[in-house]
Structure formats: structure tokens, C-alpha cells
Amino acid sequence: MAVFKKNSLVRFTDLPLRLVGAVLIGLFLLSPLFFSSFLIKIWFYILLLACLYELGFNVFKSPIIFFLNLAGGSLLFWLTNYQGGNGFFLAAGLFLLLYFLSNIFFSLEYNFLSASFLYTFYLIACFLSLVSLFF
Q1: What is the DSSP letter of 9?
Q2: 117, 26 contact by CB (below 8 A)
Q3: HSE (CB half, 13 Å, CA atoms) of 52?
Q4: Could you give the maximum distance between any two Cα atoms of the chain, in Å?
Q5: Contact status, residue 77 vs residue 51, Cβ threshold 8 Å
Q6: Rounded to whole angstroms, how far apart are CA atoms 26 and 46?
Q7: How many angstroms separate the CA atoms of 51 and 77, rounded?
Q8: By the 8 A CB rule, do 16 and 22 touch?
Q9: DSSP readout, 40-94?
Q10: Is the pTM of this model over 0.90?
Q11: CA distance 93 to 121
Q12: d(Cα 112, Cα 105) in Å, to the nearest integer?
């Protein structure tokens, strides 16, 4: 446990390291501005996979739900990007079918499946709107 003195001077010895880190993170976040349209979609897809990983393993703590989110989310993201509105409804129907089949074969609770479905659907909608706003 660190105890701070009232009148102690704060030393900025790690300031150059923090500045370099901030510049690198800023360049990483601004890098899609210089990509082609396909690479931008790949960049958003990688960010989506990171969010789905966080949702599956750290929130629900289930590898089955992670793979369901990954398969359904990938299907929904790519079909909507390349097929438009028809692809969205087709992928959403397949996404729901995947969740119903997982309930039959893996006997997961409806609470986890419904929450996971809604969170994944919300994440996909956010990333799809980010892609459409970008273009």
C-alpha cells in the first residue's frame, strides 16, 4: 500500500513513455482513415471480434456462447455488408436458428442465450452503423 506525503514532489520520469504510448494508440485509432474500404471493414471486424471475445469469455464465462456469438456475429456482419437489407434479415434468421439449435444440443439456459443474443445483436448493429457512417 502506497502512502503519499502531503508535500512530496511528483516526478514525471515515465512521461516520455506515456507520450509515446498515447501517440501510438492515437495512430492505431486513426489508421482506418488511410485504409481502403475492404481493409476498413476488416479493421472493424477485428474490433468486433475483440468485443465478442470479451462478451463470451469474460461476461458469460462460456466458450459455447463465445463460439455462438462468433459464428452468428460473423455471419451477420459479413452478410449485411455485402448483401444489404436482404442479407441482414437472412443472417438474423440464421442467427436465431443457431441459438435455438444450441439450446437443443447444448441445453443452455434461456437467460444466457437470450442475453447473449441481444448483446451480440446490439454489438453487430453498432459496428454496422460505424461502417455505414464511415462510408
Answers
A1: P
A2: no
A3: 30
A4: 66
A5: no
A6: 17
A7: 13
A8: no
A9: HHHHHHHHHHHHHHIIIIIIS--HHHHHHHHHHHHHHHHHHHHHTHHHHHHHHHH
A10: no
A11: 12
A12: 15
Separation CA 92–CA 111 (nearest Å): 19
Find all residues with CB under 8 Å of 70, minimum gap 6, and list them.
49, 52, 56
Count of C-beta atoms within a 10 Å radius of residue 4: 7
C-alpha cell at 117: 443474443
pLDDT per residue as tens, the chain (135 positions): 555 555 555 566 778 888 898 899 888 777 777 777 778 888 888 888 888 888 888 877 878 888 888 888 888 888 877 776 677 777 778 877 877 787 777 777 777 777 888 888 888 888 888 888 877
Amino acid (one-letter) located at 30: L
Cβ 58 vs Cβ 74: under 8 Å: no
Which residue type, as a one-letter code, is found at position 40? I
